[in-house]
Amino acid sequence: ANAVLRAENGFVNTVVVCGRLRTGKSYLMNSLIGESCFGVSSQARSFTRGVDLCPRLLAAEDLGGQVGGPRIAFTDLEGQGDKGAAQDLKLATPLLLISKAVLLQELCPTGPSKESILESLQLMMLAANFVAERKDRRGLFGCLHVILRDCMQDEAECHSIIFDIEDENDAETDEQAQAMAKRNQVRKAIALSFEATPHVWCLPKLAEDTAPEDYRKAPEFFIAKIHEIRSALAEQLAQPKLLDGRPLTGGVIAALMPELAEAMRSDAPALNPPSIIERVAEAEAKRASVDVLRQAEQDLLCISGSLPLAIADLCEALEVARTRLSEALDARLVALGVCSAADEAKASFLSEVLCRSQGLMAKNGEILEELAAKVRKEFSSRAEDLLAAIPLPLAQSRLELEIVSIRDAIFGAELEGRMAVLPEGLRQLVRDSIAGLMRECEDQRRKLNEKEQSRRRSGWLRLGAFGTALAALVAAAVLVAAPGGGGSALQTPPSFAPQNWQELLAARCTSMPGCEHWLQKLWPELFREAEAARIRKEEEAREVEAERQRRSKEAEDERRRLQAEAEAEAAFQRMLLLQDAETRKIAGLGVGALGTSLALLRRFR
Q1: What Rg value do the Cα atoms of the chain yield, rounded?
Q2: Phi and psi at residue 494, in whole multiples of 5°?
Q3: How far apart (Å, rounded) are the C-alpha atoms in residues 333 and 281?
Q4: Using CA atoms, how far apart are residues 158 and 198, in angstroms rounded to an integer?
Q5: What does the longest C-alpha to C-alpha distance in the chain come to?
Q6: Which residues neighbour 515 within 8 Å (Cβ) at sequence distance 6 or greater?
Q7: What one-character DSSP code corresponds to residue 81?
């Protein structure tokens, strides 16, 4: 029973039915609930043992009440008289204290017996006497309903018989006067102890010896009376039961019952509801705080699984969770009323939630720092790889364009997306760190580019000079081998025109396979160089004409060699003055000339 009540944190109203043995209390409860929740039997002995709680709590609307009202716990109490008045009293007292409605069922086939009914009610009044302070007995119990089974009399008349104060002066004997006084004393105690004026119901007798299991199969007059009782109960159960001015929840009732049962173990119980409810409120406040803290752990665990989060988003999530949990705790504590236990539980809860929130904030900060380091390392490595992949050498402007393109790729949307959860200060630190590393790498690439340009320029110049020298040697060799033999080329008259040079060289190369193509590509450059050399050599030849003829053939060969070396030296000096683009072009021609020169030399030999 306690498990059912403890699971309900909202308000709960308890309805308890009591009475003598074999009066059909369980059947009455099943009829009011509308389903078979309590066991019934035709046996002579009591079927219900102790206290039997309905296995589920009914919603207020199940009885025709308002939606959202306090839930209802129907309780069947063991029949009175089976184990003695003392046992009945100890069993009934805790239930009477927590019940919103008390149903007393009596068999009255011949009409109500005020003596018998008030004797049963006197047991409840003895339970009220266990409360130490008389002022605490006012409205101590809930609403009383006396149900007269198998009674066909008028309900108002029956109410008057049972609860109207009798005039002792009308007694014929002293014994009658004493009985009247005793009954009046019970009536006054009832008026003091119950919340409202008692209600009397006359439940007509069924024609059948055995009542149908489902009350809806009974005659219409029986069904109508059950519905009338349900409506009256629904109206009274719309407000929660108060004990010491505090509404009772399922959890409070579950905690209160053991306290009351323990207090009733004494031979002379003296219940102090304020003291008992204060202890129960303290225990319930602690339990509520523990339950909500358990829920807080689950909520914070969910938030922890979403880390890392932006600081603003994390603060918002924590605030939403704290507000929701605080409202849940307030809903649990409001039933306890104003008490120090509730305030202490709320303060302890807020302190614990704040501590755990701060721990989560610290954890999020560590994860953000780790993320920043990871992003910095990843994008720095990517920048190094991209800069290292730039092919060198490049023109300076082209290199700068490549560097700018890499910067745009690194500091683009991807980087900002990866750093979206980082605070602005940490994002700027990551950007600055990556930018500093890139500047170092860029400077290194610029220096390496300049070094590669210088090395390549030097190589091209050397190759171009070598090729030009070979081209000059080839031209000289071709002219030396011109028709007429020996030095006939040096005896060319001053009227020799450039086209004669072209014809002569073409004639010599035509006899050599593969030289035509070489001649078409190489001739324009060679002609300019050869023409300048020819003019210079013609002047030298005229000055030494007389002496040359006197020399031997060996001296003439030596002169030719020196002449070729001089021409190569002059061509090399001119080559050094050319720009980088022209140098590359001449170098290419020089490489071609190398191959052709080797072929011509082999041919001449």
Answers
A1: 59
A2: -60, -20
A3: 9
A4: 12
A5: 194
A6: 509, 596, 599, 600
A7: T
- The torsion region of residue 527 among left (phi > 0), alpha (psi -120 to 50) and beta comes to alpha
Give the residue among 386, 374, 364 at the shortest CA–CA distance from 433: 374
In contact, 13 and 241? CB cutoff 8 Å: yes
pLDDT digit string, tens, across residues 322-332: 999 988 888 87
Closest CA to 144 of 196, 220, 98: 196
Strand pairing report for 199-203 and 143-149? parallel
Q: Which residue has the tokens 């019952």?
A: 257
d(CA 29, CA 205): 17
Q: What type of residue is 524?
A: P
Contact 205, 140 (CB under 8 A): no
Q: Quickly count: other Cβ atoms within 10 Å of residue 412's Cβ.
A: 10
Q: Which of 259, 227, 221 is nearest to 243 (CA)?
A: 259
Least confident piece of the model among 265-269, 354-358, 432-436: 265-269
CB atoms within 10 A of CB 568: 19
Q: How far apart are CA 52 and CA 75, in angstroms?
A: 6
Give CATH for domain 2-271.
3.40.50.300
Of 95, 90, 94, 84, the residue nearest 25 (C-alpha): 95
Tokens standing for residue 557? 């060969």
In this predicted model, what pLDDT tens digit does every residue of 235-284 receive, in sequence order? 999 999 888 778 888 888 888 777 777 776 766 666 666 677 777 778 87
Lowest mean pLDDT among 399-408, 518-527, 564-573: 518-527
In a 13 Å sphere around the CA of 89, the CA atoms on its Cβ side amount to: 19
pTM of the complete model beyond 0.70 = no
